[in-house]
Write a structure and sequence with these properties.
With 223 residues, this protein is an alpha/beta fold. The protein is 43% helix and 15% strand. Helix 6 (124-133) packs across helix 7 (138-156) and helix 7 (138-156) runs antiparallel to helix 11 (209-222).
Amino acid sequence: EARRVLVIEGHESLREADLIGAFIPSEGHFTWVDGVLTEAMRSGAYLFVDEANRMPTRTLNVLLGVLSRGAIRLTEHGSEEVTSADGFQVVMAMNLGKAYAVNGLDRALLDRFSCVLQFGYLPEAAEIALMQSHGATEGVARVMVKVANETRRLRRERQLAGELTPRGLFAWALKLDTKRPTASNLVSAAKVTWMHAVAGTDADGYMNDDAVATVTSLIEAHS
């Protein structure tokens, strides 16, 4: 049976009221409007919280009681207690790691999720196919994905500041002159799309020359 999916994207200015609800002005008086969490509970919908650890911890912790007892008390709405309807579920997605400017997570909240999935990069063949679906030729896609996998290996070995992500690949393919996919053109397109994030910058904000040379060599070697 199809269920509604309500989505909210985490950010620093997100308030508890955005999840729970609040009174808002309407034609000369105030009207209560459910937040996305309360709406999902009432309707038995999925609540998808994207970039969950980008919202303030206090706001995110509103979910603690909801996940524990399946209910929430709306103290500003006559202390109404809302019990979650059948089918209500919360799904959170987030990026973890020191490379992301995100907030810490409450272990008590994480313990309330019975299933945790970790996603990595696609297998090489699948990522090549993905690039082809975005307009790259098979040959160009193969070169790009091989370079991407090399940057990911070197980043794990602490030889590069970052790694080439799918978004970087899409930007690279969009900027490249596909009629002339030479090594030189590949390098030029890389320098104005993703190389700054992968090579890293010095104290003055300029790209690290040694890392740029390493990445350039990778592109040339696979072209």
